[in-house]
Amino acid sequence: ILQVAPLPPVRAVRVNAHQGWFARPLDDEIRRRMRFRTDVPLPLDPLRQACALAEEGDRINDYLHEEGYFDAVAKVTGRHDGTRITLLVDVDLKDPYLLGTTTIVPGPNQLAIGDAEIRAQFVHKRCLPIVKWPCLAPAPFNRTLYQEDLQKLKELFQRRGYPSVRIQSTAVSGLRVAFDRRTHLVNPTLVIDQRRHIDVAFIGIDNESIKDEQLRKQLTFGQASSADDVEANNSARAIQNYLQTRGYFDARVTWT
Q1: Nearest partner of 68 among 209, 208, 171, judged by Cα
Q2: I want to staple 100 with a disulfide (CB 3.0 to 4.6 A). Which of 63, 108, 187, 222 is the partner?
Q3: In DSSP terms, which residues pair with 74 in a beta bridge?
Q4: How much helix, strand and coil, in percent to the nearest 5, is found in the chain?
Q5: C-alpha to C-alpha distance for 96 and 110, rounded to whole angstroms
Q6: Is the pTM of this model over 0.90?
Q7: Cα(160)–Cα(138) distance, rounded to whole angstroms?
Q8: Cα separation, 121 vs 192, whole angstroms
């Protein structure tokens, strides 16, 4: 006896994250990480269907925990409408976590950039989108924004002459160790290895037509995160190509 029936497809996905007016919307980000989307069929067996929806809830929870909503709970249910199903995603974000104390290794103030300036890269205020309204501080911890701050800090070291700097944070790699459920704070540890320092000087350039700032933009040390001899050759080649585009077809760039 063969039983044949159409698999129930998903009609729509509705997400309710219970967020405030000025919070960063999470609806679209949650939908992007779901396996079951519009027109994707669900299992026909009720037990397998319930297990699939539970797995979707776990997938959403993992994403929210990675983003800094460590106590968030997502529940996915299905509402049947004939042969189609509407997925309802109800998210309880719980209380937000704030950025606490940042430990810098090595420290204190043993790097080219002071500890206070390093910590200032991660300070954000929650501002209302109304002119002349005050900003509320501090903003809740967000992993995506924190990673952007790490990249800005790396670029700051590179501008100071440390192109091969390496920065690691427990708020990214060891996230579950960094946050404290009792105080609702994220206390990351930054391990910074600024490595080799370089100071580039340009000799033989007519500063009236070509400025040093234009040549510094051609350097490849920061892009490659390296300051070795190979990258020095690549930077010299990049500057030579740039000079040729400016009309200096016989330009020759060497380094010592």
Answers
A1: 171
A2: 187
A3: 91
A4: 30, 20, 50
A5: 33
A6: no
A7: 28
A8: 14
